[in-house]
């Protein structure tokens, strides 16, 4: 199980710059507070403490900043996911670790959660952004698929599952949990939802002891 490569749209030399990171973090803060469309490059520069012109040394425009947020921060988060999953032996443990790490990552950076979950839905007119988001989703679904297939080999997960549906079920449920937390203002412990989620995945909502209706 290998971590994903850095997307081609990221210039590795840019990534080495402290100002690049500073601008990325400032943009996340401003996008989360004001929304992508209401944000200007000047506001991002002010938050980062740099001159407006400095932004254009690292980014083409505001849309490029958003693209780099998804590319660069997604790489960081996925490295964390893969490392956490790799340290687990069994499939259910891997799934719990993946979900827990995802919820913890967004809980620790609420601004990033807002940008990833909310703003990305508002800025789908960009083909480049849509492609980037689809790539991130594909990587996540691939990781889920590997865990489920391992669970099927171990015998703890059913072999008659429609794998594509399972991937979307897990991804969709996690996204909805994060969205609800964002809309609630982050007022509760997001990471505490990890185990209930995985229990739902593994056991469903049916009662196996219940008798079928006559």
Automatic annotation (TrEMBL):
Keyword DNA-binding: yes
Record key words, sorted: DNA-binding
Domain of life of the native organism: Bacteria
DNA-binding region(s), residue ranges: 40-59
UniProt KW DNA-binding keyword: yes
InterPro entries given in the database record: DNA-bd_HTH_TetR-type_CS, Homeodomain-like_sf, HTH-type_Tx_Regulator, HTH_TetR, Tet_transcr_reg_TetR-rel_C_sf, Tscrpt_reg_YsiA_C
Domain (HTH tetR-type) ranges: 17-77
PANTHER family noted in UniProt: ACREF/ENVCD OPERON REPRESSOR-RELATED, ACREF_ENVCD OPERON REPRESSOR-RELATED
Protein name: Fatty acid metabolism regulator protein
Species assigned in the record: Desulfoluna limicola
Gene name, Swiss-Prot/TrEMBL: fadR_2
């Amino acid at each position: 199980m290998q971590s994903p490569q850095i997307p081609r749209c990221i210039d590795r030399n840019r990534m080495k710059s402290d100002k690049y990171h500073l601008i990325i973090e400032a943009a996340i803060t401003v996008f989360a507070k004001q929304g992508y469309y209401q944000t200007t490059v000047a506001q991002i520069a002010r938050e980062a403490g740099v001159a407006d012109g400095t932004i254009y040394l690292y980014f083409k425009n505001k849309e490029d900043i958003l693209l780099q947020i998804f590319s660069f921060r997604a790489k960081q988060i996925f490295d964390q996911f893969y490392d956490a999953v790799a340290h687990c032996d069994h499939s259910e443990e891997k799934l719990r670790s993946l979900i827990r790490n995802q919820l913890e990552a967004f809980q620790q950076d609420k601004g990033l959660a807002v940008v990833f979950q909310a703003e990305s839905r508002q800025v789908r007119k960009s083909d480049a952004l849509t492609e980037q988001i689809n790539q991130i989703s594909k990587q996540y679904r691939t990781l889920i698929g590997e865990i489920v297939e391992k669970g099927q080999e171990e015998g703890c997960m059913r072999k008659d599952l429609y794998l594509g549906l399972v991937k979307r079920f897990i991804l969709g449920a996690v996204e909805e949990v994060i969205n609800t937390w964002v809309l609630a203002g982050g007022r509760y412990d997001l990471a505490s939802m990890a185990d209930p989620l995985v229990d739902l995945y593994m056991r469903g909502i049916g009662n196996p002891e219940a008798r079928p209706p006559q």
